[in-house]
Amino acid sequence: LSLSLSLDSLSLALSTLSRSSLSLILSLSLSPQMGVGDKETLLDGPSSSVRVGMPPMNRRKAQSPLQRAMLAASRSRGTTAAVAAGAVIVCWLLFSMASVTVPGSLSPEEQPETVVRVDMHSHTTESDGDRTAEDQLRLAARSGLKAMWITDHDMIRDLERTRELQRAARDAGIHVGFGVEITVGWLKKEHHLLGYFPDAAWAGASLSAPMVELQKACAEVKQSRETRNNNLVQYINDLLGDQDKGAIYFETPDKARAFVPLDIPSVSAWAKEFANLLEPTSLGRPHFSKYLMTQRGVRKDLIFGPRDGDGYGVVSSDGTQVVFGTEEERAAVVGGQQIEALMHSATLARRDIAFRPLPIEDAIRMITAAGGRAVVAHPPTLGPGWYEKFEPTVAALAKAGLWGFEAFSSEIDLDNHLKIHDIADRYGLQITGGSDNHGTLKTYAKLGQVHRDGADVYEQLSIWAREGLGRSQHIMQEEEL
Q1: 89/54: higher pLDDT
Q2: 125 neighbors 132 (Cβ within 8 angstroms)
Q3: Is there a contact between 211 and 199 (Cβ–Cβ < 8 Å)?
Q4: Digit-coded pLDDT (tens) for 289-311
């Protein structure tokens, strides 16, 4: 390449590279004083005014040759020297045989052969996916993935099954890592915490004592949800099937007489289609509530009642007035019928109908004790205002041993990715990425298709792919440099 190479020619030569790589190189050519770690980089030339935040390089990690070359170029005082450095980088990117290449918006079929592609979040039929683990591995290999993690819900596999899948992965030509997605209690809600474990965790004659403890805790969480749902269905069927006690909960007498008992498979199937239930393991009171209202004619105002309070209420004799509140307020309703809000938390607690997720800080400590890394899955799914709820809790989670956040996911857009990256950077935490594929059940979560943005971030993921988490100490040393 000569120094007379125009920027147009340079752009053409780089047409197959990612937007983030191109923007970094253009910044070197157009602004010699601009540092690689600058938060904003102009993309796509003069026709675009969009500025996208670029994650700063992780200062704790060893710099790659690409990063060192870019840093050197950014310090050059002359435009000519910067262009020359950019040209060297272009050659290095196009012809290097190194295993790390920054992916951009290319489809999986278009990814260059040098890309180390990894999906760190997937599910199988052993939890709530609809493909077997073996089928997932074969599909991942055919899709061009070099590594994938199986992170089924609330379960740690035994050694026999784990090694069986390791052999299947070798036959398919892909590395497989094993993790877990634990249902945790956080911010008064259920959420998911990912745990990733080194290959060494499965190399011994038996699981380590901390891993066995985590395995038991996950099994208890899974059993707790199943038990809660079974008990909830039994309670609802007993109450609503009683014409004397249950009729008042229905919109009309005809609907009360037509009541058909609930069963979990029917509620789950309905909720998947009509109530945005993505994972059967997440079947909860909101899904039962919608099902009861739309499919059984149960009154909305008698299902939950006010969040505060004890769930007790009174319905007037004509059924038009419902009063929750103090005893005195309820007693003021003359001739009313005493009721309990059908699924108020206090109503269920009086019957010991409860789901008990693992407290998030306990789960973090247990994953860490078992040699793994704890990562908060898809933080934006906490709901509206997630960041304002999430940010104040990070210091405590980091103190408990949290390793990072999932920042690349089928459920995380660019704006939210940048928010997650910013907070991870401030607290010295890592960020990971995974599709959250469930086979064909989440049509938008394709295996291996992870939204990515930023060279340094993908380099982090590629370490996990290359090493297969085989040496946790290696990764720790990488971070400390």
Answers
A1: 89
A2: yes
A3: no
A4: 999 999 999 999 999 988 768 89
